[in-house]
Amino acid sequence: MSQAAIDSMASELARIVGADKVWSGAQAQQRYPGDKSWLTLVHAHHGKPLNQPQLVVAPHTVEQVSDIMRLASREGISVTPLGGGSGVQGAANANLGGLLLDLNGLNRVREIDEQSLTCTVECGMNVKVFDTELNKQGLTFTHDPASAEWASVGGAIAARGSGVLSSRYGNIQDHVLSLEVVMPDGSVVQLPSVPRHGVGPELGQLFIGSEGTLGIVTAARVKLQRQAKARRFSAYRFPDLAAGIAAGREIVTTGLRPAVIRLYDVKSAVLSLEKMAKAGIDGETMVLMIEGQHEALVEVESRICDEICRSHGGRMLESRVGAEWWANRYDMSHPPHVPQLPQIWMTMDAVADFRCIEALYTGVTQAIEHSIEPQWGLTVKTHLSHWYEWGAMIYSRVIVPKGPDTLDEAVDLHDRIVAAAVEASLAAGGVMNDHHGVGMRLAPHMARQFGPAGMSLLQGIKTGLDPQGILCPGKLGLSTGA
Fold this sequence. Notes:
alpha+beta; 17 helices
């Protein structure tokens, strides 16, 4: 946009939300530096920020969002929605300029249905604040990501996020019953109140994981749970990772549903879990947490899980290992554990069925370790923290102690690691991501994941819903315009 167009647009936006909720130019970019991805941080450090909104607007009602989108559609201005900004893939950056839509003002709980254990909550509600408010009524929102104190409900939906309790309660898509969505032309769509209906396709799942490219989720009806009345922790040292995977597979494929089942490889167990537990952990270790409303059921499920783990060579450790992990599970998101520039860091999470999961772990680990020259001192620590009836995911934390001094060289090193991990994931029969979304980090690899026909289908959906291409242009590896 030209400066004249920016000034005109700012005046129009001020009439919708008030002048104090509109920012432009340098003020907008200083106030909104971007998300928490390494790509965002390293570009900002070198004075070449990825997030370059020409305007920022902060509505607080769905009506205002609708009016803003009508204005943007009329003027052909690109719009990038922003939630809590806790993403690690670069999705929330307005990297092509245009308008950044700060949705944090939509932060009300509209309704709690205690009979159905559901809640209608707006997209800007902070996940931790939301759960804290529910706790006062004996309820809980079991989407519990490590980023809970920063993440918004809408951001979790946009990125198809997950949390530490997913093995029992599911990922965010399993929590969502219905959505309210503002379309690119400003129209507001209220989807059916419950999923799994026979009224045509399940449209809600179209928007979950779309990262704002198809429509703007302004509210969601989500499932709640009563707070657990009983909880049991346990931990097991396995002779190798294969034995731990076999135990985890038997647990989840025989009807047992631990709230937490985390299997650490040697490096992750020794360098991460041991720091929390201080229990002499020296190898592959699984942490289990079983919870529920009925003490007797929790006891039985715990006993059966114990029998399964022992049958696969697991040696029981002190239960406090699991309890310590639970008490300190958010620590890795805070100093001194959070990496800092000039380090290069990322998490590469991939998912596969049980037939492929061991090959996925081995292939991705080796690919990452050999993706760049040994002189960079790369380390990779992996755990399996999300388990499904059909498979599991690997969550690899990658650190390079000090990257190159120049931006281009640092990004090239980063991109080589990502490319190697993606290629190995696909070669092993897996999917290149489980729950962090695509963002700018994985967008270059979307065509490799979906193939020409799949990308054509995705582009067709995008073009059909957003013919002007104004929502998040270029994201998900899609065309920047109609």
